[in-house]
């Protein structure tokens, strides 16, 4: 069992969108601070792009979650210790939660000029970054230490039954 082509495409698409969001955050942060202080909202093309990409992350995350619930995920490699299997499962579900909540907190912050939502957005984004680092480290351990070739699951779709 492996991931479907749709799951793989969505994984890499969301990864690229999240990377772009990290690169584009300064423009919207500045515009938000200015708007909260009573200035212009500064809805520049970069701000609009950040908002739009956030909506895409949210939509694609819901789609990924639906695919996960309907198609499942491949079992962990046998070389993975049991405690790490549970941690891995928890981390994957944490991705779904964070990738759904972060765009919502960002939208509430931006469209309502809500500082609490902006603070939550920042904290959740930092948590996502930490989870990404953990995820990449785990993939590296699988690939280079345990030699499970785990990364192939996200490069090649599973053969159909």
TrEMBL record:
Query: Which terms under GO biological process does the entry name?
Result: respiratory electron transport chain
The membrane-topology field of this record reads:
Multi-pass membrane protein
Question: What cofactor requirement does the entry state?
Answer: heme b
Where is the protein found, in the record's own terms?
Cell membrane
Primary location group:
membrane
User: Which keywords fit this entry according to its UniProt record?
Assistant: Cell membrane, Electron transport, Heme, Iron, Membrane, Metal-binding, Transmembrane, Transmembrane helix, Transport
> Among the entry's GO cellular component annotations, what is one?
plasma membrane
Q: One GO MF term, please? A: electron transfer activity
Which ranges does the record mark as transmembrane? 43-63, 93-111, 123-146
Per UniProt, residues of the Cytochrome b561 bacterial/Ni-hydrogenase domain are 3-154
One Pfam family, please name it: Ni_hydr_CYTB
Q: Which family does it belong to?
A: Belongs to the cytochrome b561 family.
| PANTHER family xrefs | CYTOCHROME B561, CYTOCHROME B561 HOMOLOG 2
Q: What is this protein called?
A: Cytochrome b/b6 domain-containing protein
Q: Which organism is it from?
A: Thetidibacter halocola
């Amino acid at each position: 069992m492996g991931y479907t082509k749709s799951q793989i495409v969505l994984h890499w698409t969301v990864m690229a969108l999240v990377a772009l969001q990290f690169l584009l955050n300064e423009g919207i942060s500045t515009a938000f601070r200015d708007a909260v202080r009573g200035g212009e909202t500064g809805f520049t093309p970069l701000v609009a792009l950040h908002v739009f990409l956030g909506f895409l992350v949210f939509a694609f995350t819901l789609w990924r979650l639906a695919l996960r619930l309907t198609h499942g995920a491949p079992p962990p490699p046998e070389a993975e210790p049991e405690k790490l299997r549970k941690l891995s499962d928890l981390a994957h579900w944490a991705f779904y939660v964070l990738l759904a909540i972060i765009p919502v907190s960002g939208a509430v912050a931006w469209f309502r000029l809500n500082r609490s939502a902006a603070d939550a957005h920042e904290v959740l984004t930092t948590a996502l970054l930490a989870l990404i680092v953990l995820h990449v480290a785990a993939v590296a351990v699988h690939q280079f230490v345990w030699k499970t070739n785990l990364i192939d699951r996200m490069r090649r779709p599973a053969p159909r039954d």
